[in-house]
Amino acid sequence: MTTKTEKRSLVTRFLGDRSGNFAMMTAFAFPVMLAAGGVAMDLTNMVLAKAELQDAVDSAALAAASALSNDKKSVNDAKAIALSFFKTQMSGPQADGAQPGGAAATVNVEETAKAGEGKSFKVTITSSYTVQFNALTRLLGQTSATVSAKGTAESATGSKNAISMFLVLDRSGSMSFKTDEIASRTVPCQNWTSSNWGQSIRATTPCYVRKIAALKMAVTSLVGVLNTIDPRQQYVRTGAVSYNDVMQKETELNWGTGGAITYVNALPEQPTGGTDSHRAFAKAVEKLAPEDASKETEIGAHNRKSGLAPLKFIVFMTDGENTHYDGKSSDAYAKKSDNDTLASCKEAKDAGVRVYTVAFMAPERGQTLLKSCATSTSDYYEADDMAALVSAFEAIGKSAADVASRLTH
Question: Which of 156, 184, 201 is the C-terminal boundary of a domain?
Fold first, then answer.
């Protein structure tokens, strides 16, 4: 082999050698892989930082809104509370790379006058801070990123929401029956029961409270709660209808509770007749369910008075079971009344009306109807005596008032 040939062979082998390619590729790719890993870590940190900041502004906004409505704080005091709450929230453990020390919050409070002395508040808090990237991400030329968050909460003084409530009350013959509560030990009265109803009986002592009188006391306890949250009759509207084997003329929904309690107190002291609830309940739905803002609807009435959308409630009470349908009596008609009542219950609930039901010393079929009609199991009440009936109506009033007073967020 000549010298020229040897030189040519060495050059050829050198040019054809690929043994160092991997090392060269690794040298170029390694920084890119490190940077990609850094980006993944920083993205995770940014997500965590964003969540931490969002929690802080949400909590601070809610604290300020609550202070304005529940504690009657001034706007400036509420802003100070919000900033203090925010600072406390941001002083806890932070995501890696976050720099909360420089985070500042801006608090804005929108105050709107409502009917009477009522006010509504909208608290908005915004904040942002910088998340520093790690050294690996910086290989790509990015050193940091800013995360921001906005939190809002609303509240109001006075009644936080308006209320429209319709009472559907049984005044059938069994409401003349006595309870176990003694009204007088000296003044006699006719103590009606299921066994002597319709007979000619003499007045005796002790005189027991009739179911209808217990109902009147129970409704008084309910409206007492509503009057407490709305003493100036600006947020609560009530109406009522009674029924036996036919529906009686209802009292229209009106401001305050005066019309409803007058209607209930005027119910006869010795009611008569069978039981048919379907038309009375349908009447309550007719009054409450429409959702447009025309002046004839509850939404329209409240909108003109306070600008608030009303929460709607039906209180449905019976001491028996349906026996009639539009004045006709048979098992088939009784079942039809049950079915039509339940159809109206569904219509009410579908329209956002909350249905409370009270079974007052009622038989099993009556209880079953009311259990199915109630919005939830907690909205169904059983009362076996007068005290329990009064307690149930008072609890319904407090439940409705509590729902109306909750802070919206």
Answer: 156
